[in-house]
Amino acid sequence: MSKSLQAIRGMNDILPEQTPLWRYFEGTVARLLDNYGYKQIRMPIVEFTELFKRSIGEVTDIVEKEMYTFEDRNGDSLTLRPEGTAACVRAVLEHGLTGAGQPQKLWYIGPMFRHERPQKGRYRQFHQIGLEVFNIDGPDIDAELIVLTWRLWGLLGIRDAVKLELNSLGTSESRGRYKVALVEYLSAHLDKLDEDSQRRLKTNPLRVLDTKNADTQAVLVNAPKMADYLDDESRIHFEGLKARLDAAGIPFVINTKLVRGLDYYSKTVFEWVTDKLGAQGTVCAGGRYDGLVEQMGGKPTTGVGFAMGIERLILLLETLEQVPEEISRQVDVYLCAFGEAAELAALALSEKVRDQLPNLRLQVNAGAGSFKSQFKKADKSGALYALILGDDELAQQVIGFKPLRGQGEQQNIAFDALAAHLATCVVQG
Ligand code: ATP
Ligand code: MG
C-alpha cells in the first residue's frame, strides 16, 4: 500500500480557520510600515548557495547545518533562503538602489527555510517580516526600528509580554580587540567549556557567549565584557541609541551576552523576548551590519535591520488571548435563493448590490438546497443577516431580510432599496 501523502515535517499548512489571524497580523504590520515610510521589496525564495555562505558566514549554525541546499538541473548549487537580509542586500546591489549613498528603508515578508528540529515556535518553513535600512549611520534609525516595533506590540496588545534586550558589538576593530581578550580568557578555562564552545572558541569565539550550557555559562560570569572594549565611535552610537529609547519611554535591559547568531552584525544588536512561549522566546531580532554590503562586493554602505518571526507572534497573540473577535467573522450577509428563477434574480441583485457596496462581504448560496439546509449554511457562515429570495418574494420584487444574531425583526425590502438598507446595518470595513 502506498504511504499517504503528507507535508514535510516542520512545514505547516496554514488552514482557513487560521488565515484571518495571519491576515490581521500582516495587515497591521503593513499599515504601520507604510506610515513610517518603509517600502516593500520582494525577493526570490531561492538564491545561489554562495550568497548565503558569503553573507551569513561559513561558521554559523545556519550555514553549517540548517540550509536546504540542492543542485538544480544546470548543476548550480541553490539554497532555499534561510533569512532575508542576504537576498535583500543582493537585490539592492544588483539594482543600484543604494548608489551614490542613497538611503533606503525597505521591508519584506515571506517564508524562510532552516533544517532545525521542529518544536513549538520552531519550524523548518517559517515566516518572517524583515526591515533593512541602508545608508543611514546614526543611532536615530536604530531607535526608529525599535520604536516602531514597540508601537506594533501596542497595536497588537502584547506590550506587557515582551522585553527589549540590547547590546553593542562595537565596530569590527573594537570587536577584534575584544575577541583577543575573550579567547585568551576562555583558553585559560578550556577544560570547563562544553564541546560545542571549545569548537566555537576556534571558529567563532563570540558565539560562546550565546551558549545554553550551564558550566560554560559559569565560566562566562567573569569573562571580559564587550562594553569595556567599545571604541569611542561605538560607545557614542550606543549612548545615542539608549538616550533615544529613554526619550521614547521604551524600557530595555542591557544583555552583554547578546551576540546574535549571524556573523555580520556590528554596533547595535537587539532582541525582543517573551517568557510566554517557552524556549522559543525571541520574537524579533536584529541589529546593525555596517560591513555587510562591502563584504558582499558593494561600496561601503551602512545597514541596520531586524526580522520578526510571524509564527511566534501569532502564538503569542493566541496565548495572551489578543485575537480580536471581529476578525473571525468573514461574512456580513448570506443570500439564500430557492428555485431557478429566484437564483437568476439573486445573482443579478447581488451583483448590483456589490456595485454599490464594494466592501460588503456578501456570500451567495451555491449548490441550491432546501430552505432548512440553506438556512443552516447561512447561520454557520457567521453572517449577521440572511437574505431570502423565493417565488413569493420574487413576484413582489422584494427580498426577505432576517437578522441572524438577534438584532431586530425579519422584514421584506424592495430590490431597489436593498443596498441602501444594508449600508445602514452593516459596518463597512
Ligand atoms: P533562534 O535563536 O530562536 O534560533 P535566530 O537567532 O536563529 O533565532 P534570526 O535568524 O534572528 O533567529 O531570525 C529572526 C526571528 O525569526 C527569530 O527571532 C524568530 O522569531 C524567527 N525564527 C528564526 N528561526 C525560526 C524557526 N526555525 N521557526 C520559527 N521562527 C523562527
Ligand atoms: Mg536559530
Automatic annotation (TrEMBL):
L-histidine binds at residues 83-85, 114, 128, 132, 260, 264-265. One of its GO terms (molecular function) is histidine-tRNA ligase activity. It comes from the Bacteria. It catalyses: tRNA(His) + L-histidine + ATP = L-histidyl-tRNA(His) + AMP + diphosphate + H(+). The keyword Cell division does not apply. Residues 1-358 form the Aminoacyl-transfer RNA synthetases class-II family profile domain. InterPro entries: aa-tRNA-synth_II, aa-tRNA-synth_II/BPL/LPL, Anticodon-bd, Anticodon-bd_dom_sf, His-tRNA-ligase, HisRS-like_core, HisRS/HisZ, HisRS_anticodon. GO terms for cellular component: cytoplasm. SUPFAM superfamilies: Class II aaRS ABD-related, Class II aaRS and biotin synthetases. This is Histidine--tRNA ligase. The lineage of its organism: Bacteria, Pseudomonadati, Pseudomonadota, Gammaproteobacteria, Pseudomonadales. The gene is hisS.
